[in-house]
Amino acid sequence: MELKPLILKFVKFGIVGASGMVVDFGVLYLMRNVAGLPDLWANTISFTAAATSNYFLNRIWTFRSHEKQVGVEYAKFLLVSVIGLGINNGVLLLSSLMWPELYNGTISLLGKNIEIFYLFKLLAIAITTLWNFFGNMLFTFRKK
To answer: What distance in Å separates the CA atoms of residue 131 and residue 93, rounded to the nearest whole number?
Structure first.
């Protein structure tokens, strides 16, 4: 694949990912701060909700898939996403073990106290995005 179309696909994937991040953070906040679930459970639920919305947007817009077996394609997408979830949860778990005081702390940004947990979540998303993009491009939405 040429570089320019690859970059365009990655940009589209990033835009879809940004919408997924809104879903991810919204559900994460509800599961963690309203429902009171532990971090990794809340993250698993929010990640799954975001992955599902991302599948449909990536199918239609980023990769323009016309695969007739949507269930098989969705299963492939979920497989890539589950591995991505492992990476995502791994980053959060390692962060909590390596820097527990920081992980559980807060920082003041623009006059608001932000839990540092959410900054580690952003790092986890950045790392997972690379895996998800190449995994989906080469496996889920690979042209036959």
So the answer is: 18
What's the CA gap between 87 and 105, in Å, rounded? 22
d(CA 142, CA 144): 6
pTM: 0.78
Strands (E), the chain: 106-109, 112-115
How many whole angstroms separate alpha carbon 60 and alpha carbon 65? 6
Question: 43-52, long-range: CB within 8 Å, 24+ apart, which pairs?
Answer: 43/88, 43/89, 43/92, 43/121, 44/85, 44/89, 47/81, 47/84, 47/85, 47/88, 48/81, 48/85, 49/23, 49/24, 50/20, 50/21, 50/23, 50/24, 51/20, 51/77, 51/78, 51/81, 51/84, 51/85
pLDDT tens series, the chain, 144 aa: 688 899 999 999 999 999 998 999 999 999 999 999 999 899 889 988 988 899 999 999 999 999 999 999 999 999 999 999 899 899 999 999 999 898 889 999 889 998 999 899 899 989 999 999 999 999 999 987
